[in-house]
C-alpha cells in the first residue's frame, strides 16, 4: 500500500491502512451469542433449531433470542427441541438491555435482520455474522449450508471483517413546556425509549446503519427543507425529500434514487435528493465526521416526515431539527471471503450490476472490414 511521509526532520511515516488487515481477533473465546431470526417465515424454523442446537450442545454457548421467537408455538410444541428451548436466554426489545453481554451476533434472514440487530445496540456493536436466508442478501454473505465450517472459522478468529459506519442522529422537537403529567427524565437525563429533554424541547438519539429519509409524507405539496453543513446553509431541498445515507446504505434506497454506490470501507456520508424539482441537483458525497442538519424551510407549506432505517417514522414540524454525523460505533460485519470480493459479489448477485450480453468473438474467417453493432 502507498505510504504518506512526514517531513524529513521527524523521520516518521504515516501508512494508509490496508483494508485486508482488518481481521477478527478474540481477546477471549466468545461465550454469549445472540441469534436473530427473521420472524413470520416458517422456512427458517429448521435452520434456527439446527443452529441453536449446534451452539448450545456442541459449542456449549449461552444463546440469546427474542422472547417472541422462543415463544413461537411451532417451537414450544416441538418435543425434540424442548430441551434446547429451555436453555435459551430470552429478551424483549425496548425492555431488556443485552448490549453489554453479547460476544457475537448471528443473523438468519435477509438484510433486515442485520439492520434490526444494529438497532438493538446503540453503543458498541459485537461482530455480526449474517447468513443469507431472506429475499435480499446484500449484507448477508454466508450460505447456511456450510454454517458449521464457517462458524468454526469465526470462533478461531480466522475471518476478515468490515467496519460498516453508522450515522449518529439527534432529533430535537420544538415542544412547548412539559406538563407535570408527562413524567420527568431518569437520572441520566433521558426519557424512556431513547428520549431526553432540554430547554429546546424533546430529544431523540439514534444509531442508523442504512439511511435517514426525510420525505413529504401524505401531503400533496413538495417537501421544502433546508440543509446545513457544519452550521452553514448549503441548499434547500424541494422535491419528494432527501436521503442521508452511509456507504452501506448507498446500495439501498439511495441507489434507487440515482445515487452512486460507495464501498463500505470509504469514510463518507451521501446526500441524495428524492425526485428534486431541479434538473441540476445531483447526489453529493461529503466527508465522514461533518455534521449535517435538516430543518423545515421557513416558507414550507407543509410538514415533513422522517424515518431511520425504515423504522420509528415521525413528523417534523417548524422549529424541529435533525442533526446527523458519523457515529463512533460502527457495525463489525464478518466477511465470507474478504471485504472487496464480498461487496462486488453482492453487486452482481443482488443488483445484477453491469450484467449484459457480451459481443460474440469475431471468427478468423470474418472480413476485417466488417463492423459489428
Can you give a write-up of this model?
This protein has 373 residues and is of the alpha+beta class. It has 2 domains: 23-164, Probable inorganic polyphosphate/atp-NAD kinase, domain 1 (Rossmann fold, 3-Layer(aba) Sandwich), CATH 3.40.50; 167-178 and 188-326, Probable inorganic polyphosphate/atp-NAD kinase, domain 2 (Tumour Suppressor Smad4), CATH 2.60.200. It has 8 helices and 23 strands. It has helices spanning 45-58, 67-70, 73-76, 82-87, 111-119, 147-156, 253-256, 339-351; strands spanning 3-5, 13-15, 32-37, 62-66, 89-91, 104-109, 128-132, 161-164, 167-173, 190-191, 195-197, 202-208, 211-215, 223-229, 232-239, 241-245, 268-274, 284-287, 292-296, 304-308, 311-316, 321-326, 331-334. The strands form 5 sheets. An 8-stranded antiparallel beta sheet has the order 10-11-12-9-22-19-14-15. Strand 1 (3-5) and strand 2 form a beta hairpin. The longest helix has 14 residues, at 45-58. It is globular. 34% of the residues are buried. Belongs to the NAD kinase family. One of its GO terms (biological process) is NAD+ metabolic process. This is NAD(+) kinase. Residues 174-196 are annotated as: Disordered. Pfam families: NAD_kinase, NAD_kinase_C.
In short:
This protein has 373 residues and is of the alpha+beta class. Helices cover 17% and strands 31% of the residues.
SSE layout:
Elements: E1 3-5, E2 13-15, E3 32-37, H1 45-58, E4 62-66, H2 67-70, H3 73-76, H4 82-87, E5 89-91, E6 104-109, H5 111-119, E7 128-132, H6 147-156, E8 161-164, E9 167-173, E10 190-191, E11 195-197, E12 202-208, E13 211-215, E14 223-229, E15 232-239, E16 241-245, H7 253-256, E17 268-274, E18 284-287, E19 292-296, E20 304-308, E21 311-316, E22 321-326, E23 331-334, H8 339-351
Parallel strand pairs: 3-4, 3-6, 4-5, 6-7
Antiparallel strand pairs: 1-2, 8-23, 9-12, 9-22, 10-11, 11-12, 13-16, 13-20, 14-15, 14-19, 16-17, 17-18, 19-22, 20-21
Amino acid at each position: 500500500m502507498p505510504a504518506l511521509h512526514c517531513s524529513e526532520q521527524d523521520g516518521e511515516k504515516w501508512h494508509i491502512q490496508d483494508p485486508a488487515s482488518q481481521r477478527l481477533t478474540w481477546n477471549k473465546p466468545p461465550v454469549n451469542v445472540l441469534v436473530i431470526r427473521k420472524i413470520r417465515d416458517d422456512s427458517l424454523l429448521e435452520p434456527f433449531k439446527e443452529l441453536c442446537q449446534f451452539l448450545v450442545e456442541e459449542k456449549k454457548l449461552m444463546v440469546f433470542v427474542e422472547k417472541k421467537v422462543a415463544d413461537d408455538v411451532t417451537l414450544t410444541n416441538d418435543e425434540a427441541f424442548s430441551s434446547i428451548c429451555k436453555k435459551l436466554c430470552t429478551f424483549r426489545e425496548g425492555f431488556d438491555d443485552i448490549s453489554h453481554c453479547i460476544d457475537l451476533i448471528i443473523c438468519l434472514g435477509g438484510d433486515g435482520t442485520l439492520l434490526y440487530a444494529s438497532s438493538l445496540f446503540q453503543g458498541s456493536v459485537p461482530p455480526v455474522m449474517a447468513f443469507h436466508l431472506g429475499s435480499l442478501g446484500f449484507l448477508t454473505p454466508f450460505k447456511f449450508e456450510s454454517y458449521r465450517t464457517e462458524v468454526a472459522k469465526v470462533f478461531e478468529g480466522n475471518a476478515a471483517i468490515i467496519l460498516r459506519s453508522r450515522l449518529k442522529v439527534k432529533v430535537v422537537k420544538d415542544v412547548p413546556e412539559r406538563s407535570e403529567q408527562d413524567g420527568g427524565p431518569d437520572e441520566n437525563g433521558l426519557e424512556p425509549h431513547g428520549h431526553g429533554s432540554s430547554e429546546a424541547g424533546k430529544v431523540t438519539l439514534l444509531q442508523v446503519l442504512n439511511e435517514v429519509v426525510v420525505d413529504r409524507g401524505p401531503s400533496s405539496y413538495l417537501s421544502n427543507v433546508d440543509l446545513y453543513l457544519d452550521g452553514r446553509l448549503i441548499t434547500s431541498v424541494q422535491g419528494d425529500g432527501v436521503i442521508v445515507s452511509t456507504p452501506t446504505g448507498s446500495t439501498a434506497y439511495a441507489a434507487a434514487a440515482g445515487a452512486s454506490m460507495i464501498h463500505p470501507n470509504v469514510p463518507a456520508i451521501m446526500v441524495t435528493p428524492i425526485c428534486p424539482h431541479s434538473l441540476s441537483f445531483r447526489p453529493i458525497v461529503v466527508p465522514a465526521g461533518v455534521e449535517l442538519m435538516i430543518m423545515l424551510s421557513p416558507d414550507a407549506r407543509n410538514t415533513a416526515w422522517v424515518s431511520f432505517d425504515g423504522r420509528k417514522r415521525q413528523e417534523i414540524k417548524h422549529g424541529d431539527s435533525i442533526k446527523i454525523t458519523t457515529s463512533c460505533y460502527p457495525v463489525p460485519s464478518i466477511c465470507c471471503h474478504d471485504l472487496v470480493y464480498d461487496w462486488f459479489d453482492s453487486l452482481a448477485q443482488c443488483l445484477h450490476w453491469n450484467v449484459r450480453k457480451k459481443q460474440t468473438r469475431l471468427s478468423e474467417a470474418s472480413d476485417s472490414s466488417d463492423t459489428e453493432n
